[in-house]
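Sequence in, structure out. Go.
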Amino acid sequence: MARERSVLRVGNASGFYGDRFAAVREMLTGGPLDVLTGDYLAELTMLILARDRLKDPSLGYARTFLRQMEECLGLAQERGVRIVVNAGGLNPARLAAELRNLAQRQGLAVAVAHVEGDDLLPRRSELGLPDGLLAANAYLGGFGVAACLAAGAEVVVTGRVTDAALVAGPAIAHFGWTATDFDALAGAVVAGHVLECGAQATGGNYAFFREHDVTRPGFPIAELHADGSSVITKHPGTGGAVTAGTVTAQLLYETGGARYLGPDVTARLDTVRLAEEGPDRVRIDGVRGEAPPPTLKVGLNRLGGHRNEVVFVLTGLDIEAKADLVRRQFLDALPPAARPAELRWTLARTDHPDAGTEEAASALLRLTARDPDQAKVGRELGKAAVELGLAGYPGFHLTAPPGPGAPYGVFAAAYVDAEVVEHTAVLPDGRRLAVPPAPVASRPAETSEEPTLPAALPAALPTGLPAALPAEPPAGPRRRAPLGLVAGARSGDKGGDANLGVWARSEAGWRWLAHTLTVDKLRELLPETADLPVTRHLLPNLRAVNFTLTGLLGEGVAAQHRFDPQAKALGEWLRSRHLDIPEALL
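Output:
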């Protein structure tokens, strides 16, 4: 890529597989861009693509992206915008070939390259990975993307790279950074993390959404500089907003401690500085970087068994007694030999007293069944539920007839030595370029504010840094009120763990938040976490506390362990909880 320009404008047009289809065209036509990125992969997506590949070995990539390019490939080339996406999924070579075929049909000469080497499934035994996997993919960095762009690629498709690598790779190519330019790399990784989830950086999923028009948020842009600093913005006239708050929310999303580990660099989130420098313009600078860890994370996907769900509707009076009757009758009707390995009952008290509609007077009793044998979550389970229809509680009915049961997936993380992963850039002319692993350095032992590390991370790779508590908040009268009146939150999933970031909107609010929202207080406010390992990290520059809730999501989103399997609304639940808040903040 040319390096004569001092600023590299990188936009995003997809935060997940299924995001706004029109965003690619909107970003290409809405204003100037140098690079357009798209994130199509997530833990659940990899399982979906793996099942596609089982049915047809030529699949395994995000077909939506190919349809978007049918509309916009010529437009991107005409405007000189490079495309970098991870839509290759489990089959980046096939997607690259399909793009070349598409370009040929449209009479375009487009240089297409791809990055591979993340797929470790063929090497499962050699690397000591477990049996029964559908997919095993290492999280690669941005240097393979950079090599493709440096060789003249106009479109680069990858498999499982880190989400931030889609932005870091173009910046490496544009500015000529080397593997030891840790501060610049860290700045690009932070910018990439802000962009990776699309409209979440421009007002989508934002705690204070009522302050902006988020009917149709635009997608974000990072204006990157040679030192790794950036300005987050969006095309003029698009919806949503870019503020210090929207950027803070995204920085806290799916992160943990002060050290954000990646394959190219370890970015120090405790050094991030944010400054609003105009409407819809937030500067990110001061980011420090360190050598990356010697290992790469590997996402492992497998089928965990079969699950089914039956939802009983309980209406009016005596809700608890009706639920108790259902449980007793159901277990009596289901022979012990036919019982699934796991039966879980959840009563959601959605009912209201003296309700004006029947639905508002009703609660939902959800039965979730899991077993390795599909038969045990199928016909017999449904039969036992349906046979209660005229012999159960008054008003008996179900939200839907029981189905046959369906397979569910399990996600887990493993770690392998970076040197054993064959990171490869396949250039537009077909040449294969091996991408060496990043230089790593030994790191001193450190501790987070709370001593327990998330179980998914090896203890040799600490993410926390000790952070001093701010001064105590001033004394004064307090009032019982929802936390969300004075703090924002955003939450999400990392395998079976949940991440929950909470930030204050003022310095006084930060002082109160840091002293008040301890691990014990969090467990009190969110009783589901009472028996789980919880790690708290302080990020003073962001006026934030960030929690990792180990095991809250069981075996990951595909296992559907809880009502909100990706913990997307966990932060909003926390914000709705009441506690004693200084009146000065309210």
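Check: Residues 443-462 have pLDDT under 50 and may be disordered. DSSP finds 14 helices and 26 strands in the chain.
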